[in-house]
Design a protein that fits this description.
Number of helices: 11
Low-confidence stretches: none
Strand content: 5-15%
Oligomer: single chain
Shape: globular
Largest sheet: 6 strands, parallel
Order of helices and strands: EHEHEEEHEHHEHEHHEHEEEHH
């Protein structure tokens, strides 16, 4: 069997501070016989020197394009637009299997070059459960930002921090008015994180999951002051909010955080906005009267880059050590091939 060569790429997105492999886990990979090349990256939360000390090779940012053909390129967020033909196997969150904008173009790049997308969202066990995810931290940060916005303490631009520092700003202060909150998808990873953040803020949220969303009570939903959506739909469901709900003069809802950010997908459960927010402008006003503010940032865990990366890397490590053509990675490859077939994309 060919020795596994993992190539940890620099993230093209300027606000992406996380990494799927932290230095200590890179050390374990090297000890396990894996060759690990790490690209230099000025924004990655862990300096490249820590990887070099762990036994990794170091390469310039963006040099994955000329990596050996059998190298597996590992990252988190979107690839740059070039090259147009992708010849490697890439491990990252591709967001390409639910007809999202740009999905077909990305899959065609892989097909043209003979590479493959091994999407981390579809790295699952035999029962379909995710094996490595940032969900807890996404939910935690989503609820935290919603609380800070609702209390008038959210400042922009956002900057990475630590959990201890964030918790300090979340704790209720004298003069903070009480408010009601709702977490939809409360039993999942993201929902659990949202509940923890609300608890730190001194708020006991209403928790909905499958039982409550099967027969959605929108009137009750709209009676909450703050709502966090932590549902990632995998099949069509009625939307949780519609434009006419936002126009309801009796609406009490004032702050909405969409952790999922499934904008552009036909499976979007919140089709009431058409673009995400970002670190520079984390809040978008959806309605003026009564006011409704939206927080919809698609890389929330990068605001706590060290904690979220460490957790994710620990979950991913055993599957990288056991990287192969079967098991979870085989399922990833099968899902990529099925997505290509569904779009009529010929594969080499």
């Amino acid at each position: 069997m060919t020795e596994l060569h993992l190539w940890l790429r620099h993230e093209a997105r300027a606000t992406e501070r996380r990494t799927p492999i932290v230095p200590e886990d890179a050390r374990r990979l090297v000890a396990g016989g894996v060759t690990v090349t790490v690209e230099e990256s000025p924004q990655r939360v862990f300096p490249v020197g820590e990887y070099e000390a762990a036994g990794c090779r170091v390469a310039p940012a963006g040099s994955w394009v000329s990596a050996p053909a059998d190298a597996v390129v590992v990252g988190l967020k979107e690839l740059p637009d070039e090259p147009r033909e992708l010849v490697h196997r890439h491990v990252f969150f591709g967001h390409a299997y639910k007809r999202q904008p740009g999905a077909a173009a990305l899959l065609r790049r892989f097909a043209a070059g003979g590479g493959a997308l091994l999407d981390l969202e579809y790295l699952v066990d035999d029962d379909g459960r995710r094996l490595a995810a940032f969900g807890f931290w996404a939910g935690y940060l989503g609820a935290a930002l919603a609380v800070l916005r609702h209390r008038g303490r959210l400042t922009a631009p956002l900057t990475p921090t630590t959990k201890d520092e964030l918790d300090e700003t979340l704790r209720p202060a004298a003069g903070d008015a009480e408010f009601t909150a709702l977490v939809i998808g409360a039993l999942g990873r993201s929902g659990r994180g949202a509940r923890v953040a609300f608890g730190t803020a001194g708020v006991d949220p209403t928790c909905w999951d499958l039982a409550e969303t099967r027969d959605l009570d929108r009137r009750t939903l709209l009676e909450h002051d703050v709502m966090v959506n932590a549902v990632l739909a995998t099949s069509p469901v009625p939307p949780f909010l519609r434009d006419r709900d936002l126009d309801d003069p009796a609406r009490r809802l004032r702050t909405l955080c969409d952790v999922t950010c499934d904008v552009g997908s036909p499976l979007n459960v919140l089709p009431v906005y058409d673009r995400t927010t970002d670190w520079d402008e984390p809040v978008r006003r959806l309605r003026e009267e009564p006011p409704l503010d939206l927080v919809a940032i698609d890389n929330l865990p990068s605001l706590l880059p060290k904690e979220s990366s460490t957790d994710f890397s620990a979950a991913l490590l055993p599957h990288l050590l056991d990287f192969g053509v079967g098991g979870p990675w085989g399922r990833c490859l099968d899902r990529y091939r099925r997505a290509c077939r569904e779009l009529g994309i010929a594969q080499g």
